[in-house]
Structure formats: C-alpha cells, structure tokens
Specification:
single chain; alpha/beta; 5-stranded mixed β-sheet; 3-stranded antiparallel β-sheet
C-alpha cells in the first residue's frame, strides 16, 4: 500500500487538562540552553535558546546557510530580537526536542556517552531535527540505534505484544508510548524499520483498540497513531494472518499435519493431536498471537507433543518463520528488504 505523497505531523500528544491552545504562553528562556555569549536565539514553540551560530553551523549545513541569510542590524530592538540577538523561529518543531538535541550538542559526554542508552525523546529529536536540518552525525547515530531494534538484522530485532522498545541502546521515557514510535517511523518514512514496527503494531495486545483510543505514557500523556497508519494496518492485517498460516504455522493446518504426526509420532497419536488442537486454540483464539510468528522455537512452544513430533514441528516452524520474515515488507505493501531506503519521502 502506497504512503500518501504529503505528510503532516499530527498533534498526537494530548492531556485531559491541556488548554494551551486556549491560553497561549509567552516565550520563556530555556534554563539549560542559554549562553550569555550566544549570538542567536532559536525559538521552538514557547521555548527560546540562546546559542552560537558557529557551533550549530558546524553540525548543520541547513542552519549554516540559514545564518548567512539571517543578518539583521546589530542593536535592533524589534520583536525579532532578544537581548540584542536575532530570534530565529523554528516553525513546526518541538521545543522539548530542540532542548534535547542542543543538550547533546553542548553538553556532549555529560549528557550521553556513545555507549549510553538514549531515551525516546532524544532519539526522536535526533531523527526529526537531524533530518530536517541535516544534523547528519546525530541523525545517523539515532537511526543505527532504531535499526538495531527494528531493522533487517534478525539477530537484534524486537518482537513483543507490549510495545516495549527497550534495548541496551534505546529506552522508552515517561512522556512517550508506543503510538509515538509508530508516528516517528511513519512521519520520517524510515522504511528500513517500518515492516517490523508495523508487525509489532499488529502484535500489540491492545490491537486494534489502541489505534482508536491511543496509548498512554507513564506520565499520563495520551498519544494516538496517525489515521493513515490505522488504515494501513487494518488493510494489511488479513494478509499477515494468512501468510502466517501459510508459513510458520502451516504444519498446523495443511496436509503436512498428517505425515508430521502420523509418520514420526512415537507417543500416543491422540495425545499429540490433542496437544496440537490446544496449541491452535492458544495461538489463534480469541485473536492470533502475532508475536509468536517470529518467535524462537523451543520444546515448550507446543507442550504435550512427543519429541519426534516436537522436533518436526519446530523444523517446519523455523523454515516458515524465515519465509515470513523475508516477505514481511511485501505483506505491508512495501519493497523487499534489500530495496528499502530511509527518508524516502
């Protein structure tokens, strides 16, 4: 399924007591990013940051060009100045994300060391602002961490039903939840990560209700997935269910079940058949356990099978799982794994 040619970043974080739109706040200075010798003020939402053109230009080619264009007269007292510094508004950007990115730029190793875990807020800031303003180093660092969890490398991927993204390199923070992960990858068209993120989205234990009701963070922030994501997942789910039955769980349903259980079974065949029926009910009712489709097989996956049946079932499952993994992007209407590109807007 093709993505829309144009995207707007939705207002996805809402609080029940949030009345900022009715009572807009005056801009405030950041307490952590305000340098008295700074020569430019960036304003994102209601946060202002006094920083140095040369420092930002060193990291961002877009800002370097912007600062060449923005050359107001020194000493001006118009609204476009703050403490004699020109104010450059950053429309559409999150003030919190700018604060996180500037903290990483200015405070460096005191904020986060290369091997430290980055919070989702930091990750989002590095990706969104890194892409928009070409903070290339920060963008690529964040992207490598996200691809560790949701990229094409089978050895490091995350598959679960809880929306957990925690690894030794990234972690969810108290202000965000699973819907924010979906929106980030979708908004920036991070196609290398989208197949597995979509897979986890359908595997979520509250799917599809959370697509409509949102997901809540630890601090109570309610985030909702973009309506286009909702439509895409709902249109793709049946293809995913069908492909799982054809691949990793084919031994439960097709003709291979008979030789699987009848040809190798060394126990009581009725016992193995009963275990198989129980497993089908466990995996596919009341709704399919999508997270099991890319699981690692072990003997307790289908308890009750005799050893030969369990071994044969495991072999069939793993072969099918590898096929499912290879087809995953196509199931979601995307190009094959080796043709996917990030930021393909």
């Amino acid at each position: 399924m093709d993505h829309p040619s144009k995207r707007k970043r939705p207002n996805t974080a809402l609080r029940d007591d949030d009345d900022e739109e009715l009572h807009p706040e005056s801009p405030t200075r950041s307490t952590s990013i305000w340098f008295e010798d700074g020569n430019v003020v960036l304003q994102a939402e209601n946060l202002m940051f006094r920083v140095h053109k040369s420092v930002l230009a060193l990291h961002s080619s877009v800002l370097a060009d912007m600062f060449i264009i923005v050359r107001p007269e020194p000493g001006s007292t118009s609204d476009s100045f703050e403490d004699s510094c020109p104010v450059v508004e950053m429309p559409g950007d999150s003030g919190k994300e700018w604060e996180e990115l500037l903290s990483l730029i200015y405070h460096g190793y005191r904020k986060a060391r290369p091997n430290d875990t980055l919070s989702f807020t930091q990750l989002s800031a590095m990706l969104r602002l890194g892409h928009k303003y070409n903070f290339a180093t920060y963008r690529e660092e964040a992207l490598s961490r996200l691809e560790d969890a949701f990229g094409p490398d089978w050895e490091t991927v995350i598959v679960n039903e809880t929306g957990d993204i925690n690894t030794d390199r990234i972690s969810m923070d108290e202000a965000h939840s699973w819907s924010d992960v979906l929106n980030l990858a979708y908004d920036l068209r991070l196609d290398v990560t989208l197949p597995l993120i979509y897979y986890n989205a359908i595997a979520h234990k509250h799917y599809p209700a959370y697509l409509f009701n949102g997901t809540k963070s630890e601090d109570g922030t309610l985030s909702t997935a973009h309506p286009s994501i909702r439509q895409h997942l709902l249109c793709s789910q049946d293809s995913l269910f069908l492909e799982m039955r054809r691949t990793c769980f084919s031994w439960m349903f097709d003709e291979s079940v008979e030789p699987l259980l009848g040809g190798v079974c060394t126990g009581r065949r009725s016992v193995c058949l009963s275990a198989l029926v129980t497993a089908i009910g466990k995996i596919f009712t009341p709704k399919p356990r999508i997270d099991w489709g890319l699981a690692i097989w072990d003997e307790n996956f289908v308890p009750g099978l005799c050893k030969p049946c369990s071994k044969a079932a495991g072999r069939s499952f793993e072969e099918g799982r590898d096929i499912l993994w290879g087809k995953l992007p196509v199931i979601f209407g995307m190009k094959p794994w080796d043709s996917l590109k990030n930021f393909d807007l």
